[in-house]
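In this section we walk through a basic example: taking a raw amino acid sequence and producing a predicted 3D structure, encoded as discrete structure tokens. The instruction is simple. Fold the sequence below.
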Amino acid sequence: MRSYRELFRTPEYTPFFFSFAAQNAAGTISGLALATLVYRATESPLLSAVSMFGPQLAQMLGATFFLSGADRLPPRATLTGINSAFAVCTAVLATPGLPIGAVFAVVFLQGLIASLGGGVSGGLLNEILSKEGYLLGRSVFNMASGLMQVTGFATGGALLTLLSPRTCLLLAAALYATTAVLLRLGLTARPPRSAGRPSVAATWRTNALLWSSRPRRLTYLGMWVPNGLVVGCESLYVSYDSGSAGVLFASAALGMFVGDLTLGRFVPPALRARLDIPLRLLLATPYLLFALRPGLPWAALAVCVASIGYGASLVLQERLMELTPDELAGHALGLRSAGMLTMQGIGAAVAGTVAQLTSPPTAMTLVALASVAVTLTLAVLGRQVRREAKVSEARPAQTA
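The resulting token sequence is shown next.
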């Protein structure tokens, strides 16, 4: 599968794609509205960052206990239920006078619910498309995510100048409800991919199996840590320049769209496989410019260029699928999603804490440096694994 026309002619892909886009738009609008609401109430960069990216902190907890459901629950019913729950939680966040403690309790609940969604969605996409079509289909999903973030943050920023944050949260809740309807009407009722009931024991067993392979571990860490630290930089946009945060978020989403389009459609597979480290370095290094406290045009340009580096996620997802048996695809992709989002929440908390102690520009610079250091460390470890694999392959030949 090499063309977008072929992709969108695949049964179920189109409604699945539009429901994914609507869910992303709802998430961006609600995230920006909630971060703005919390910052206005507390004037705290830390609480603002955690309110926007806090649901991710619950992702790994959910992955630890619930992720076996990614392959053992019917996909359509599960995704419909998840988006319905998001609609209810987002509407609750719009309640006037809701205490900050209650806000974070709802945010945590959203993260637990979301921990199952990445695995169910990834596994279903793997079923809908052939193995040859997965990367192209995934790249289109990522591009949709970028476009919806551009649209969502730009729209959210505009709406916040006209409406209250609580009204924007209600609009996002309605969008989540629409997504649930799209999923219910547009997808076929498929059986679970694996037999057996979801359980904590099954989740732990499969997590341990996936984590037992060193190449898979390094692939997971490459998707989780550098990405999460850079999202920590993004979580400080509101406190860096609250009036222009929507523009910065939209610029980041635009860069991500460009990276995914280029990697998914135009870069040959042989070259693509070698680009994960350069792309992860690109993801972090432009944020070093924030040490100079740039104004909006330069800040937006740096953010846009950096976000092209998010294309590394496509390369690493393709590698993960090569290293994982088909029957564990949903669980493996769910662990990828949960770990990535958890690290984004941790990145937001770390960046917010550093910003609280220093300043948002200083925090962005330091966290970006940490991302570069992690990428270089993982590159060294990856070379060691490949060298050991070559030695082990050569031994039987030498013995013969």
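Looking at the output, two observations stand out. The first helix runs from residue 4 to 8. The mean pLDDT is 86. In the next section we compare this with other chains.
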